[in-house]
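Hi D.,

Good news: the full-assembly prediction came through. Inputs first.
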Amino acid sequence: MSIRLTEAPFDPGALLTEFTKGRTETGAVATFTGIARAEAGATAILELEAYPGFTEAEIGRIADQARERFGLHDLAILHRVGRIAPGEPIVFVAAAAGHRRAAFEACDFLMDYLKSRAPFWKKEHGPDGERWIEPTAQDHADRERWG
Amino acid sequence: MSIRLTEAPFDPGALLTEFTKGRTETGAVATFTGIARAEAGATAILELEAYPGFTEAEIGRIADQARERFGLHDLAILHRVGRIAPGEPIVFVAAAAGHRRAAFEACDFLMDYLKSRAPFWKKEHGPDGERWIEPTAQDHADRERWG
Amino acid sequence: MARVLLFGPLRDLAGWRERRIAAASVAELRSVLAAEDADLGAALGGKGVQVAVDQAVVRGDVALSASSEVAFLPPMSGG
Amino acid sequence: MARVLLFGPLRDLAGWRERRIAAASVAELRSVLAAEDADLGAALGGKGVQVAVDQAVVRGDVALSASSEVAFLPPMSGG
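Then the structure:
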């Protein structure tokens, strides 16, 4: 299991290559990549702040829940912090399981947590200045699906 | 939109790198990679047969449905044919959408179709000889979730 | 001479994958194949076996030309 | 001297991210900060602001040592 933060841009494909290598009993790997949207020019730069150590540990607790709940063989999470330009990946989640339903649901579950509850603070720098973002009502509703 | 069959082993990561490149308005990319399982030694080799031309066209019809139904920005499907060894990827599906729920559901939908209805014929070569495989009851039930 | 293709278990049963066979219709083609190999003839009419002419699935009888491609598709396994 | 960390909007409000401040408890630390900057003091007690001591979330008052790390965590944005 790998949970990491990075200040540098990353290639989700390189992570998937690494994650799938040598798996002879896994059957199913699902991934999710979140990409910073330009919102047709409205968002110039996204700034993500984490609390190093604390943030990885909190994500790790949810990752342990996901492993248990979905019977995962493995999972990997990489999250950007710092200043992120439109088109750059923000987050990559991969889940390996015996069957595809578990792998899909684990990614979905982890993303719902990451989008609404993970210890990040997010600021948008746009043409009208900067503003701190909070999770949307939809983000909260998504997370509540999992009980 | 890309729908291809290949007789050669492939790296799902390389496909994801290509698929995510230059997407400034997409937001969400979900993928699924299906990997041949060794089944603890019971399956030595999987052999997948397609009807070239017909198979891609049939998958394309479902891919068009998925684009419409989930409002996808793009999708890619690569499917192995021929002899596949344990640990080798069989299928890669990627869906790009504005938001993560649509991307996840599109991959899930496409995989349910590919596992139960796509024009492939599948044979397992194991220690006790070879046998043709049909979709499981679970595969059919999975597909029926989508109406 | 239509180009005839067999897939999956039908190919194993027949012992061939592709042949050229003279037939003016799918029905005539079925008769020719059944006369040669009764087991194959029965299998081609089996449950869930579809026929595609020029890569489009057809039902019932269809006329064939010399350049037709006829494929017998047993129940699909999925990928 | 506890190490005090502010995150997200709290950092922008205070104009600093990290300082060393002498305080024997979280309650005393809150008083020190409120005495310096009433707006910050109010924000630290705002809805949804959590406190972590040595990277574990705590509720109510907690004693601090010279090596404690105290973080004020405003409502999280998610990633």
